[in-house]
Amino acid sequence: MTDKQMLIEKQFLKLLEEHRFREITIKMICEEAHINRSTFYTYYLDKYDLLDRLIEHHLSELNSIGKQFADAIIIDRDALRTLSLLYLDNLFSYIYNNQKFFRTLMTVHPAQNFTQKFLNVLKDNYMHIIKNHHLQDPEYFVNYTLGGQFGIIYFWLKNNCEESPDKVADIVYRNILKTNR
User: Fold this and answer.
1) CA 85, CA 152: separation in Å to the nearest integer?
2) Are 111 and 21 in contact (CB under 8 A)?
């Protein structure tokens, strides 16, 4: 990613905090980023393409985090608990490091399409992690867990991520252990 693209994305997120997506124009993005329209169009087709790429980038990163830990758990089944906590630490660290993006699309101007994709990535990660661990009713367990986890993520983002990522990971981890008895 080029410096110009990072600048465009940063200023776009800034605008998203203040305006609804439908109100944002290419002109506004270019003015915020202090670039010409031609520079914007060098990288993006339109504002929809910009938003879609941002979403895809972050969801791809979350998916990679999940896959990394799922693969490690397959190799070492006895490390399920340790690796699950590490997965949560990495997940919440990623959200924390990109909180402006997540806060904007989940709490400031919620994008239902993004939220659904976000939950699907987390669900796929959990299903992949637990697939060889003979849990009772795994689909229900994962959906139940995600409902609570989404509530925690929403609350955490809404409160400007006051707690550290490892603190939130521990909260989620302890709650997962309580529900799977």
Assistant:
1) 16
2) yes
Distant-in-sequence contacts of 97-106, Cβ < 8 A, 24+ apart: 98/58, 99/157, 99/160, 99/161, 100/13, 100/17, 101/13, 101/54, 101/58, 102/58, 102/153, 102/157, 103/157, 103/158, 103/160, 104/13, 104/16, 104/17, 105/16, 105/55, 106/153, 106/154, 106/157
Task: Quick: pLDDT tens for 32-76.
Answer: 999 999 999 999 999 999 999 999 999 999 999 988 887 777 666
Whole-model pTM above 0.85?
A: yes
Question: How far apart, in whole angstroms, are the C-alpha atoms of residue 93 and residue 131?
Answer: 25
Q: At what angle do helices 26-33 and 3-18 cross, to 10 degrees?
A: 120
Sequence letter at residue 85 = L
Q: Read off the amino acid at residue 94.
A: Y
